[in-house]
Design goal:
By secondary structure, the protein is mainly alpha-helical. The chain is 83% helix and 0% strand.
Length: 401
Amino acid sequence: GLRTLRGRESEAAGGARRRMSAGGNKQGTSQGVSGESESIADKYFVCTECLVEGSVQSFVDLFYLTHAVDAQDTDEDSSASFATYETLQFLKARLTEAEVANRQAQHSSVFASYMDIAHHYQGQHDYKTAIYFLTKALDVARLSEDAEREADANQMLGLAHERMGNLRTAIEFHETHRDIVTTAGVELPAESGRHLIGAYKALAEELQRQGDYASAIGYFERSLKAAQTLGDFAGEGLAYQQLGNAYQLQRDFLKAAECFKKFLDICQETDDKIAEGSACSSLASAYEAVGDRASSIKYLEAFYEVALTTGELTAQREACGRLGIIFNTAGDYTSSVHYFSKSFEISRSLGDQKAVDVARVNLGVARGCAKKETYLKIVNGSMDALLSWKNRRTPFDDPPR
């Protein structure tokens, strides 16, 4: 009886779908809306199938999914999720599988169905809907006290919230995932650890842009600790560099120098020459800010030597230009001329006219300063010699008649 009734209802629903599709096709021929009509027919048919099969909750979920499309929460048009009849059937199959399995307390099957749907919506860049089903999967994992699946759901929720820009929430899920894994005595996978480090870093950078340097430092420190726990040398070095930058923005230059020195040590240990040059440059800036000229010169010279090794002409020019300024300020004009000359020649080789003009002015000032003492001696000691020099440089014009 009931099976026969359902069969008749299913046949009727199929007939309705075929009639609506046919009607839509005719209308499309005359009015250009056949695709829309067929889509409506598909939705009607698949939703009706859920009721015919007795899957009421699946009908509710599928009806919501097919009618409550919010394009604002997706990177692409959400209607792409229902572009084909096959997609609708996929969703209906997973929802009904979950509903039937839930009645039979088959939690692993329920979890798998919800995760399949969540993966589908992540592929559509519809993270809001993905989060809805990931949350349902998480609830099932908790209900069944399945720590492995609970960890998986937490990690996926963390990634989905990252994509939506909910960084604090993402961090909560990533940290929960880490805690579940480590409590079970399992080593945190490297990829999972990098997800957590990335979330810390992203939030710290956002806080830094907002001017909240203290909070940014806190999350950079958490990023550092996570990298150290993971044994990620590159991540640890980057965290020290970012911490140093944050301390500089906070004008705590000694703390910044400490972080940059640790960054430099890691660069040298990993033989990362490009990063080593960056570390030397940052250390020079930090020491210059606290008035430690000798240390600043030391690290700028190291920066220049590393740039020579790597062949980075722009870095060489930067190092020489900064050294020229420091030596000129210190009154060591011979060294200043030496480095400004190098900066000038490198700028010419790069064909950077603006940099050439700046370097030419700096070099001219340094050379002038270098000859200033001799010039003053001549001015103060021999007026005849001064006039003779002036006559050779600028001939007198004949007086006007």
